[in-house]
Amino acid sequence: MLTSHPTLLIGPSDWDADVMPKEEFVRRIDALWRAFPDAPCAIVYGNPAHHAELAYLTNLVPKLEAVIALLTRSGQHEIHLGGGPNMLGAAKPLTFIEDLKPLRGGQAIGRRALEAKAGMPGALLIIGDGYMPTALHQAIDEAIGEQALNATAQVWALMRRSSLHEVDAMRESCFALNGAMTAIADAKRSGLGVTEAILAGEQEANRRGAQDVRTLFSLDGGRTLQPFSTPLDARIDPLQVYVAARRFNYWSEGFLLISERRPPVAAKAKEALRQALATIKPGTRTADIVELISAATKPYRPHPVTERAFMSRLGLALEEPPHTNPGATFESGEIYSVKVGITNGTDEHAIVSAMVRIRENGTDMLWTA
Amino acid sequence: MNDQERLADIRRRMLDEKLELLVGLHDGAHFIEKPNPVMVLSGFKSLGAAAALLEPDGAMTLVVTPHWDAERAAQRCPDARVVGVDDLVEGVLGEIGQRAAAGTALATAGMRFLPYDIASHLTVALPGARSADKLMFDAARTKTADEIANAREATRIAERGYEHLIEIARPDMSEDELAVELKWFMKTLGAEDNFLLLCAGPHNRAVQPSNGRKLQVGDIILAEITPSYQGQLAQICRTVVIGKPPEELKRKYELVVRAMDEGIKAAVPGVVMANVCRAINTVLEAEGYGEYCYPPHIRRRGHGLGFGSIRPGDVALDNTTMLEPDMVFMIHPNQYLPETGYLLCGEPVLLTERGAEPLTQQKAALATIAR
Fold it and tell me: Residues A340-359: pLDDT tens digits?
């Protein structure tokens, strides 16, 4: 889900070969070449806000400036980093690719891509270009003098099924998420104010190794959500929270309604979530799950926060529509955030969710409210 | 100046340029070097891409993503009409597409900072739109009273963050661990965001984002601590040694502090920003470091502080902006010296009639962590 994006990514993002071996990236890049048998080279763009494709192919999450990876069929991959030559040192631990250079602009990238193409007939690939600044995009277009083939959607198709390494990373991410949620609930129960509780959750996620943690909370019983803007002492019950945690580049997210009472609306939402999770298996139509949730939550109506996203695919991106949108059916190997948000429009609101991995006969629960 | 007076100034400029509509655009990725026209016009820090549409009579429409964030926007901007959408291009064109097609004189601010997938669609759909970047940011070259107050609070938080750094930094702690803890600590004080560059080493080439490197005795920690309070950034640049600092390092740090002091002295109303940079360079050049006063060693000696407007821009030799009271910006020599490596030293300042007033309580001094 969309949250406030930080101005600088602060947190542990170094490449860990034990978690995500180089072979995993080689396999992914090979799959890209198989999808585009004639492509000689791929230009992959990422910036601190949008970089799922770049992270998928290189492990690199840009913390400060934009990055372009030049992937070549020969395996002589290059990383071009914004911010000048002095930024190379800090970025080196973030990726398995060893050839790091300063990003000298779109013309230079285009020329380098043409060199890598070396007269091969296939079109150059471009990935993640929608997030490029226009001037950079135009400079690359001018330099290569031809229309690059946009392969972003194909990379996302490759990203749909999680490998075992990715599932392990997601479990670690959910471990951080769970720590945050538990800490928030504990802090609330101990009488702390709303932002103290939220910050207790963020701190626990940090302790569990999260490289990023983002939160939203409600001051009006779950009707609306807001990001942290200033410390607030108010004790809120029920307290509706949203937490997204990131570990080893993989995101998990969750909604939780914390209350000393047992609001009927929360029970209704949880029961609908339980029914949805019990129904999901490979081949289940996502539209059927939306219908099931709607039926199970009547007379409540969908909460505005989740009404257009009862479920989303999660992994290297938290919010990258259309790619994080659900497909027509659930498929084995996919990881989903399933959300049930309901409201009566006045004073009863609840959003609860779960993180699940779709497997052969059903789902593995990674986290649930 | 307050927000209303700034808006009135923008509207006057619209009339001067015969504009019937001003469209401020931002993609929601808040970056220290990217100005935010939506914040300048509305004060609203959006979660996603957003636009603020201003009419010459002062009527404003705020288009925000995601759609469910509209109520927060309406609370923050009670005088604006707020439209919540999930696609900014569709939302903006839904509001103004017909008027644009009918030839309304409109201009956009922030277009060149937008990502390609938004900018390319809007450029095609608004073919007659002029750029209003200059109009908008000329009007926001100085800070409002609220922004100045927020910059003071952000500076206070930065200084508390720095004290915390000195308390907790220790060998075997990773740069990432230290940066994460500092960010969290400053958030407890009210910093909703933080551009915290932090790195360490015995001889740094530059200040960089933190990574997993473990701190060691003899390291020089560089910290650009930049919390945002209510959407207004302030920064302090500090250098800390783990262990006993060599005499030469102490001397060189005094040199960069002296250079900063000369820069602060040179920053007075009525001079161009380039003079501030020149004053800093003069001190360093006199000590034989002329070649280190230019890229790749140094690009600028300070900068404006967003997230709204980043005017008056960089403290650089090519910045001819005339300094005026109520401008807020950083002055930081942040110099690479061959004997010591990169050293951070910088203060946020408020231009007053009398000159540059540092917003900090404690000026930069080389700090040590005895371990």
Answer: 999 999 999 999 999 999 99
Contacts of A228 in chain B (CB under 8 A): 187, 192
Residues of B in contact with A199 (CB under 8 A): 184, 187-188
Q: How far is A359 from chain B (nearest CA, A)?
A: 31
Q: What is the pTM of this model?
A: 0.96
Residue B47 has its nearest CB partner, among A4, A137, A231, at A4
> Of B139, B174, B207, which marks where a domain is finished?
B139
Residues B262 and B336 in one domain: yes
- pLDDT-based confidence at B101, cuts 50/70/90? confident
Closest to A82 measured CA to CA, from A106, A99, A98: A106
Q: Of B139, B173, B203, which closes a domain?
A: B139
**Cβ separation of B113 and A133 shorter than 8 Å?**
yes
Domains of chain A: 22-159 (3.40.350.10), 164-368 (3.90.230.10)
Q: In which order are the strands placed within the sheet that holds B193-194?
A: B193-194, B227-229, B232-233
Q: What is the ipTM of this complex?
A: 0.95
Question: Chain B neighbours among A 3-42 (CB < 8 Å)?
Answer: 3-14
Of B181, B150, B179, nearest to B348 by C-alpha is B150
| Contacts with B160 from chain A: Cβ below 8 Å | none
pLDDT above 70: percentage of residues in chain A: 100
Distance CA(A122)–CA(B67), nearest Å, equals: 42
Q: What is the pLDDT of residues B13-64, one digit of tens each?
A: 999 999 999 999 999 999 998 999 999 999 999 999 999 999 999 999 999 9
What pLDDT, on the 0 to 100 scale, is given for residue A323? 87
Which chain B residues in 262-291 lie under 8 Å from chain A, judged by CB atoms? Answer: none
For residue B260, give the nearest of B358, B151, B117 by alpha carbon: B358
Query: Chain A to chain B, count of Cβ pairs less than 8 Å apart?
Result: 149
pLDDT(A327) > 90: no
CATH code for position B233: 3.90.230.10
Report DSSP state, residue B136.
Answer: H
User: Any chain A CB within 8 A of the CB of B164?
Assistant: no
Option in A48, A94, A203 nearest B184 (CB): A203
A125-to-A145, A147, B273, B313 alpha-carbon distances in Å? 13, 9, 44, 37
Mean pLDDT of chain B: 96
Judgement on whether residues B54 and B125 belong to the same structural domain of the protein = yes
**CA nearest A134 in B: which residue?**
B116
- Cα–Cα nearest to A256, from A156, A367, A357, A363: A367
Domain count, chain B: 2
